[in-house]
Amino acid sequence: MFGRILNERILNAINRFFKDTIIYGIAAVLPRAVNIVLVKLHTNTLASEKYAENTIYFVYAAYFNALLTYGMETAFFRFFTKEKEKGKVVSTSFISLLTTTLLFFGLMYSYSDELTYYFGFSDPLYLKILIAVTTLDTLVVLPYAYLRVTNRPIRFMFFKVMNILIYAFFNLYFLWYVPYVMGQGGYVPKFVASGFSEHPLVLYIFVANLLASAATFLLLLPTLLKFQMTFDRRLLGRMLMYGLPIMISSIAYVTNENLDKLLLEHYFGKEEMGVYAACYKLGVFMTLYILAFKLGAEPFFFNQADKKNAKDTYARIMTWFLIFGALFMLIVVGFIDLFAGLLLGKEEYFAALMIVPVILLANLFLGIYYNLSIWFKLTDKTRYGMYFSLAGAMITLALNLALIPVLGIMASAWATLAAYLTMVLLSYFFGRKYYPIPYTLKKSGLLLLLATGLSYLSFVFFRGNYLISVALTILFIGYAYWNQKNEIREIWKA
């Protein structure tokens, strides 16, 4: 009787998790999906070397975001769910982020002209826009986290969708509408027309980014103003002890994701790097799935931590995560030329498509790592996450430096896979010691091997044969259903 009740609780928790993930997933996937559509606009509009400049801009944006949030978002989730004075957690976190972000803005903007050369930008305006965007994006991190932890997914989704719609609108306006109208001799505002004669088109991607961030900040301003400004220095100290290792982990993650692009530019120039970066974007399908999962999972995992059946819930969620992730990998690989034609546009970008299967598998391992990482977040041993991420970053650096001269762009793809696989193994074996979770290794391993093997067959032997791709996908779905049929029935009844 007790076992049946416990099993029902696990199934109910999984049901709630799926619902949360779907809601937050829409907020995550829709903006990224629009971004994917914009890839074709960017590749059709920009030469590959200019697309590389666009890539470099967003690489630095990722580094700045990791530094400026310094793990405070995850620390906020942890302390909000375990502290009684939740208002103090909110206000202390926000005051800390506000202070450091404004200091960053003042210092960086004051010396932006001098720093432009060191960041590799040809125009100081690029760096100034980047500083402003990063400042605005950091100031809305906590309001977004507050909406998630207080279970307000509709508001969260609204702000995320508005941000990407504004960004997409101005991308279309600057990169398509204005050049078209000017080419036809039509009217555009004088300040816009004069800007087009002075600056390359890539600048207007950054301008669109700034306008979207500014609008989002204004929309979230009422939420910011609701926070009561009380500050607890001791609480901040505890949150920093928890969050700073996560900051280092985030920097290491950004390194794993972006160092390859910077090194490829160094070895082969901006044109080759631009081709690689565009094809790397096809891995975003897996990234979308992981992001949707993470947005729903992070607050859910913390809220489940004090439940008796928490570990069993985590194990089952891992299995389901792996099933859907492996399915996404197989679909993208099986229809890779179709996706490339839809998203990349120019054929000059197709030269690096061979990296996509490896990048997809690497990102799937990254998602597995996010699942595994719950043990060090719940046990307050976040320093282990820092160690694992640093190990991954060192592997990324070493393999890229050693293999790029030999293997070219494929070296960067294999280095990414090796880094994330290493992080998975380290987290799993240390997790068994400090917070053992009963993962179904045999079942999960067979699912992963089958999906990887089918993806290999599809890409190497049956590329472009969509009938075979459909058949391989159905084969995997059938095997996954056979593996999970009892639990599927239970979830359906719950």
- The number of strands is 0
Structural class: mainly alpha
Q: Roughly what is the average pLDDT, rounded to an integer? A: 81
Poorly predicted regions: 1-6
Cα Rg? 23 Å
Shape: globular
User: What fraction, in percent, of the residue positions are helical?
Assistant: over 70%
Can you tell me the number of structural domains?
1
Sheet with the most strands, sense and barrel status: none
Question: How much β-strand is present in the residues?
Answer: under 5%
Distance between the ends: 16 Å
Number of helices, where a helix is a run of at least 4 consecutive DSSP H or I residues: 21
Order of helices and strands: HHHHHHHHHHHHHHHHHHHHH
Give your account of this protein's structure.
The chain is mainly alpha-helical and 494 residues long. The protein has helices spanning 2-45, 48-69, 72-82, 86-110, 112-119, 124-139, 141-149, 153-183, 190-198, 202-226, 233-268, 270-280, 284-304, 310-334, 336-343, 356-372, 374-378, 382-407, 409-434, 441-460, 466-493. The chain has one domain. Helix content is 86%, strand content 0%. α2 (48-69) runs parallel beside α10, α11 (233-268) runs antiparallel to α19 and α18 runs antiparallel to α19. It is globular, with a radius of gyration of 23 Å.
